[in-house]
Write a structure and sequence with these properties.
heterodimer, A: about 250 residues, alpha/beta, Rossmann fold, 6-stranded mixed beta sheet, about 25% strand, disordered N terminus, B: about 425 residues, alpha+beta, 2 domains, elongated
Chain lengths: ~250, ~425
């Protein structure tokens, strides 16, 4: 029997009634209270809300880095509940791209090598193809001239752009980002967001990003407002998707 | 290259100081193991080689007779009770037949009969009590290393001269004799023989070199007044390690006492065995220290890399991959440490073997004796791999079991 969320034209990522508690006994906090959402291909989704409302916790569960205490989660229409850790790892590698607020690059590797790390685990491409692809991605984020620079010698903004390129390395269906432009100057912030938006629309991927930046949020197709562990509002921003270049982001 | 191996390699080379400290621990551990084994076994093997080359693996000697207590039981029969001490009869009965049968055993390489006893040797200036062995030279040469032990004179003089005599080097020194000198041998019963010193030998075991001399079987039998007596048969084996089992078998088969070299030299061998255990304890402590160093280093690496571990997990690396990343670092250290340690150990062993040292106690040697044995290197590598991989495994498991989300929640720039 198929799962209720399984359909022929499955959504790339969806969840129903996610519950999550953190801490023990008196310190136990109910951080997610029945969160449901569905990401659509070709659309950008922003999650906004005050600090501590559960945005990052939601992102970690959607990114298969944490398990919910209740509720259901499906990627590409396939439920992930009960999957073994190895299978969750495989799905993270193949289907999800994660961008953290603090880039988290491997300091002992160059920019190019950092991008090739998820590709090596995927095992889909040979070494020259991986190199070409990594170089292309770095070029796209404006670091085509810093391929072989050790990541510890890049500025914070450059490291974040490498992290974004790394999230795209395995051509994931879904990109999850935790304040990806939080540490970037306006120009870079715009450039990165434009890159992500164009990629999502061109490649028909889904982007969910957590942000405190109202300009970025308003430039997304959907804005999900969270408060006290719940999605209290979902707002759709209809726009001319062909001509919209999100030039105003970060201003 | 598998991704986790690639990452493990990069993590290892990126921490050069930690790598160096860990490597030094393994290199010294492996090298010390090799050097200590080479030293202790060097003296031991030299001693065993000398013993085997001088007195063979098995010595068959006096005939024995089992004795039992008998008594009459109530039914009028005779019952044999517990065995009492054996009764020994000096010498071997039908030595030729015993040697013929012994040679049928595939493990037996050679047999040599001899007659032995104590007599007095008188030179021009000195008189000494000595142990004379009457030998059949050709059989003796086949069964012992006598040919290689000659340091003065030659065997042919002994072969062609019925009055020829060979003396141990220390005995010849005590008697102040050189090759060609005349010696008078006096039997305990007053028998006297004028002999010529044909050759001087050095077995390397002082107890032999300061007391033993060789003459022909007939001369010895005459001096000891034991015509046609054979005191012992020396048996040389292809595999001397099997001597204890074969000597027990010979004893039952021939009805004569048969003693293996391990039994005869039990006291000396125990000293070597104690030395080897002492060396093993020292080396184990060194290798354990190296293991602790590596455990500490890798634990520090894990703590240092928690964020990287979380990132790798977020990119789809499995727990097993993370374990491999860190165990592989241990593998690199163990491999490099074993190779470099083996080279360093060989260098040290060679250096030690060149140290001039006058050993004149149980053994005779002019420099440090070392054993070159590939097994020392293999065992050292096995111990190093075991210690290092064990020391790597626990930090690796710890790394693999870290929950990425906990690290990511608590991490900031």
């Amino acid at each position: 029997m198929n799962h209720p969320m399984e359909t022929d034209d499955a959504l790339p990522l969806e969840c129903e009634n996610l519950e999550r508690f953190l801490g023990q006994e008196e310190a136990r906090v109910h951080v997610l209270r029945g969160v449901s959402l569905a990401l659509q291909r070709g659309y950008t989704h922003a999650v906004v809300g005050p600090s501590g409302c559960g945005k990052s916790s939601l992102l970690y569960i959607l990114g298969l880095l944490d398990r919910p205490d209740a509720g259901q989660l499906a990627i590409g229409g396939r439920p992930v509940a009960g999957l073994r850790d190895d299978e969750l790892s495989r799905q993270r590698n193949e289907l999800l791209g994660f961008i953290f607020q603090f880039h988290f690059l491997l300091q002992d590797f160059t920019a190019l090598e950092n991008i090739m790390i998820p590709m090596r685990q995927l095992g889909r491409w040979n070494e020259p193809t991986m190199r070409d692809r990594a170089a292309h991605l770095l070029d796209a984020v404006g670091l085509g001239n810093k391929l072989h620079r050790p990541s510890r010698h890049l500025s914070g903004g450059e490291q974040q752009r490498v992290a974004i390129a790394r999230a795209l390395a395995n051509d994931p269906e879904v990109i999850l980002a935790d304040e990806p432009t939080g540490n970037l100057y306006t120009a870079n912030s715009t450039r990165v967001f434009t890159l992500l938006t164009e990629l999502v629309r061109r490649e028909n991927k889904a982007l969910l990003l957590v942000t405190h930046n109202p300009a970025i949020a308003s430039a997304c197709d959907w804005v999900l407002t969270m408060s006290d562990g719940q999605i209290v509002e979902q707002q759709y921003n209809p726009r001319d998707r062909e001509s919209d270049k999100s030039d105003h982001v970060g201003e | 290259m598998r991704p986790s191996l690639y990452i493990g390699l990069r993590f290892t080379v990126s921490r050069k100081r930690s790598l160096l400290f860990s490597l030094l621990g393994v290199i010294f551990g492996v090298a010390f193991y090799i050097v200590l084994q080479a030293q202790t076994q060097g003296f031991e093997q030299y001693f065993i080689k000398t013993i085997l080359g001088t007195s063979g693996a098995i010595v068959v000697s006096d005939r024995y007779q089992n004795r039992y207590t008998t008594f009459d039981n109530a039914q009028g029969g005779t019952v044999m009770s517990g065995q009492q001490r054996r009764k020994y009869y000096e010498g071997i009965t039908d030595a030729a037949e015993i040697m013929r049968v012994a040679r049928q055993f595939p493990n037996v390489l050679a047999c040599a009969p001899l007659v032995q006893g104590n007599i007095t040797a008188r030179g021009d200036f000195q008189t000494e009590i000595m142990t004379v062995q009457g030998i059949d030279l050709e059989l003796q040469l086949r069964a012992t290393a006598l040919r290689d032990q000659i340091i003065a004179g030659n065997l042919n003089d002994f072969r062609v001269n019925p009055s020829g005599l060979m003396l141990g080097s220390l005995l010849a020194d005590k008697l102040q004799l050189k090759v060609g000198d005349n010696v008078t041998l006096l039997g305990n019963g007053g028998e006297r023989k004028a002999m010529t010193l044909s050759a001087v030998f050095r077995s390397g075991v002082n107890a032999i070199d300061e007391r033993r001399g060789y003459v022909t079987t007939r001369v010895a039998q005459a001096l000891l007044e034991k015509p046609s007596m054979i005191s012992q048969i020396i048996v040389t084996l292809r595999d001397p390690d099997r001597a204890p089992a074969m000597s027990m078998h010979f004893e039952r088969l021939f009805g004569h006492r048969a003693r293996s070299w391990q039994e005869r030299e039990q006291g000396n061998l125990q000293v070597f065995s104690t030395l080897r255990i002492s060396a093993a304890i020292t080396v184990s402590l060194i290798i354990m220290l190296a293991g602790a160093l590596i455990f500490n280093t890798l634990t520090m690496t894990v703590l240092d890399k928690v964020r990287e571990i979380a990132i790798l997990r977020s990119m789809g690396y499995r727990r097993l991959d993370i374990t491999v990343v860190f165990v592989f670092q241990g593998f690199i250290i163990a491999t490099l440490g074993s190779i470099l340690g083996a080279g360093f150990g060989a260098l040290l062993t060679y250096g030690i073997s060149q140290i001039p040292i006058k050993v004149r106690g149980v053994l005779y040697a002019d420099r440090f004796l070392v054993a070159w044995d590939v097994h020392h290197y293999i065992y050292a590598a096995i111990i190093a791999f075991f210690a290092v991989l064990t020391a790597s495994y626990f930090p690796a498991r710890r790394a693999a079991n870290l929950a990425p989300v906990d690290i990511l929640r608590g991490s900031g720039q």
